[in-house]
Amino acid sequence: MAIYLDHAATAPINDAAIAALNTQMRKLGNASSVHNPGRAVRKDVEDARHKLSELVNANPSEIIFTGSGTEANNLAIKGFFWQHPDRNVIVTSAFEHHAILDPVEWLVEHEGAEQVLVPITKAGIIDLDFLENIIATRGKEIAVISIMHSNNELGSIQPIAEVVKIAGDIPVHTDAVQSFGKVEFDFQKLGVTAATISAHKVGGPLGIAALILRRGLDLTPILHGGGQEREIRSGTLNAPAIVAFAAASEFTISNREDNFARVRELRDYFIAGLKKAVPDVSINSAIDPALPGIVNATFPGTESDALLLLLDSEGISASAGSACSAGVPRPSHVLVALGLSESDADASLRISIGTTNTKAEIDQVLNIMPSVVERARNAFVVSELK
Amino acid sequence: MKLIAAMSGGVDSAVAAARAVEAGHEVIGVHLALSSNPQKYRSGARGCCTIEDSHDARRAADVIGIPFYIWDMAEEFHDGVVENFLSEYADGRTPNPCLRCNEKIKFAAVLDRAKGLGFDGVITGHYAQMQETPLGRVMHRAVDPGKDQSYVLAVLNTEQLAGAHFPLGDTVKDQVRVEAKRRGLYVANKPDSHDICFVPSGDNAGWLRDRLGSDVGPIVDEAGKKLGEHKGAYTYTIGQRRGLGITIPAAGGEPRYVLKIEPKTNTVVVGSHEALAVTKIVGDRPIWCGPTPTANTQLRGFAQVRAHGSPLACTYVQNGSEIKVDLDEPLFGLAAGQGLVIYDGDRVVGSATVAHTE
C-alpha cells in the first residue's frame, strides 16, 4: 500500500509530459544555433512558450524560462531590488516560501536591503490594512512587493488583485507555483508585474519553471552568459523540459475544473473523517477561497516528525513544515505566522491531495490515523518526561 | 525485532545497521542532530554534527535500503551533555561527555522515543559485546582491543542494556571497513572520530576558556606557596607537567605536576610525581550494567578510569550509593568527575563517577 498525499511538494508527472519529453529528447540541436537543427528546436521551444503564455494569459515574450521556481523567485526579488538602487525596502508576506524569504534575508545581510513582513490574519490572508499603511508611509522606498498567490501549507488564496491596486507604481511579484494549474491564474487580469510558475507542480518535469515578467521591463540578471532569455536569464534552453512543461500544463489546465471539484470533494471527505477519527484535531488550512487539496491539521500532544515516520511506515506520504539543510525538522514558519504556538506548529501535518488520489485511499488513511496519533503521543510523552 | 539504527554518518553505524537488516530485523535509520545550528559544531568530516555527516548517513541508509529520518536532539544534547560538561569543569572536575551522551541521549532520549513509537530498541556502531546469561543480559569488551568502547557504555543500566544492540562487538575495525566496502557503503574509508564532537577545533582548553573565563590566578605548591601564575585554571589537567611556566625550581630539582585545580579560588596546585599517586578511589552514582554485585562485600576485579586506559587490578566494595576501589598498584593522576568502570575479566560490572581519591 502506497498512498501519496504530498502533491504540494511535487505532483506525479503526467503522460502528456512524458510523451513530450520522449520526443524532444531525441531531437538534436541547440535552440540558439542558426543552423537547421537549431532552428527546429527553437521552433519547438517557441511553440511551447506560446502555448504556456496562452494558458496564463500573458504575451509569449513575457515568459522567461528558469531552472526552478526558486530561481525565478530569486530573479524577481534580487532583480527588482538591484534594478531600483534608490529603493531598499522589500515587502513580502510573513508566510512566503523560503525561496522568497531567504533571498530577501540575503539582501538584508549583504546588500543593505530592509525587509518588511506583512502579517497574516487568522483566516490565513495577508493583512491588507498593514500593506496599505506601509505603502502610504514608505511607498517611495519599496523596490518590490512579493506576495504568494496561494499559500503552500494553508491553501489560502491571497487577494493579489487588491495588492496590485494598492501598490500603484511599485512592482508586484507573486509566487503562483501552488496556484497554477489548480485555480484560475490570469497574468493580465491580475495585473501583477511578475509571477513565478513551476512545471513539477502541474504534472511536468523537474528542473523547469518560469518567471512571467511584464513586457518592456528589465531585471538585473543573477546568471550571466549567453543571455538566451531576454538578456535576463542565461543558459542553454532546456528544450525537452520546456516542451514538456507546456504539454503538462495544457493537459492539467484542460481538466482544471473537474480536477478542482474532485480533489475538493476528497479534501472535505478527509477533513470530516479526520475530525471523527481524531476528535481533538484542529484544522489550520483554508476552505474557501483555497486550493482544493490542502489540509493542514494540528494533532495536539504529538511531534510532526514522529507522525511522518509512522505514516511513512504505513506507506502514507505527507509532510510537515520544512527542514534545514542538514534535514533537521523545524516548526513551520507559516503556522507560526498564522499565530500557532511553536509546539502546536510542531504538532502539525500537511496532507496535500491530488488528482490521482481516491476515496478508498482516504478511507485507508482515516483508518490508520487513530493508532498513528496514539503512538506519536506515546513517544512524545516519554521524551517530555526526560 | 523493530529497531532504530542511530546513524552518525560514519562507517561503524552504517555497517551495524546493515548487519541488523541482514539478521532479519525491521530497521529504520535515524541521524541525531545534536546542534540547533549544525554549522556551530561543524567539524569537517570527523564524525559529528555536520551537514555532510547527515548526508553521509542518509546515503548509507539508502544503500542499505532502509527508511531514514533526522531526529532533532539538539536541546537534549545541549542541556544534558554540553551544559553538564561546562558545569563539571566549573566545579573543578573532569567529565567524559561521551559517557554522558550514551547515558542521557543515545540510550535514554532516543531509546525512549523509539519505544514510544513502537520499536524494540536501538542499534549503534559501538564496539562492545552482549551476552545473554541466566542472570540477564551482560556486556563484555569488544573483540578489537583498540576499538573497545565498553568503557563509554558502562553507564547503561540493565533496562537500557536490554534495548541496546551493538552488532560490531565481535569484529575488528579493519574488517568492518572491508565489509563496508563490500556492501557498497561509500563511508568505508571515512576517518574515525576522536575528539569531543562539540569542540570541533580539538582545542578543549581554549573552548573552555572561551566559556568559563581565563582569569589569571596563582600556581601554588602543596604548602600554598605561590610559584607562578596561570592563564585560566581550565587550561590545566591533573597530571600535566609541561607548560606550567614556573620559574622557581623545586628544592630537589624534580619536575612538578598539576595535582589539583580549585576553581573557587582559581588556583592550580602543583607537586611531585609521587603526590599524584592514587591507590584508593571512591566513585558515586553507581550504575550496574548487569547483575548488582553483592553489597558490602570485598570483590576482586579491574578498574578503568579512561576510555583507552589500562584495566588496573583492584579490590572493590559497593554499598548502594558508592563504589570504593583499592588498587593493587598506584595510578598516577586521576581527576574527580572521570568515569570509573569496574570489570570482571572482560565483563563490565558497572560504573561510577570519581568523587575523591587518596
UniProtKB/TrEMBL annotation, chain A:
Entry protein name: Unannotated protein
Residue spans crossing the bilayer: none
Keyword list, A-Z: Iron, Iron-sulfur, Metal-binding, Pyridoxal phosphate, Transferase
Gene3D superfamilies, per database record: 1.10.260.50, Aspartate Aminotransferase, domain 1 (3.90.1150.10), Type I PLP-dependent aspartate aminotransferase-like (Major domain) (3.40.640.10)
One annotated GO molecular function: iron-sulfur cluster binding
Pfam families per record: Aminotran_5
Family: Belongs to the class-V pyridoxal-phosphate-dependent aminotransferase family. NifS/IscS subfamily.
Cofactor(s) required, per the database record: pyridoxal 5'-phosphate
Keyword Oxidoreductase carried by entry: no
PANTHER family: CYSTEINE DESULFURASE (PTHR11601:SF34), CYSTEINE DESULFURYLASE FAMILY MEMBER (PTHR11601)
UniProt domain Aminotransferase class V: residue ranges: 3-365
TrEMBL record, chain B:
tRNA-specific 2-thiouridylase MnmA-like C-terminal domain sequence ranges: 279-354
tRNA-specific 2-thiouridylase MnmA-like central domain boundaries: 208-272
Gene3D superfamilies membership: Adenine nucleotide alpha hydrolases-like domains (2.30.30.280), HUPs (3.40.50.620), Translation factors (2.40.30.10)
GO terms classed as biological process: tRNA wobble position uridine thiolation
Record SUPFAM superfamilies: Adenine nucleotide alpha hydrolases-like (SSF52402)
InterPro entries (UniProt xref): MnmA-like, MnmA-like_C, MnmA-like_central, MnmA-like_central_sf, Rossmann-like_a/b/a_fold
Keywords attached to this entry: ATP-binding, Cytoplasm, Disulfide bond, Nucleotide-binding, RNA-binding, Transferase, tRNA processing, tRNA-binding
GO molecular function annotation: ATP binding; sulfurtransferase activity; tRNA binding
NCBIfam families named in the record: PRK00143.1 (NF001138), trmU (TIGR00420)
PANTHER family xref list: MITOCHONDRIAL TRNA-SPECIFIC 2-THIOURIDYLASE 1, TRNA 5-METHYLAMINOMETHYL-2-THIOURIDYLATE -METHYLTRANSFERASE
Protein name: Unannotated protein
Lineage: unclassified sequences, metagenomes, ecological metagenomes
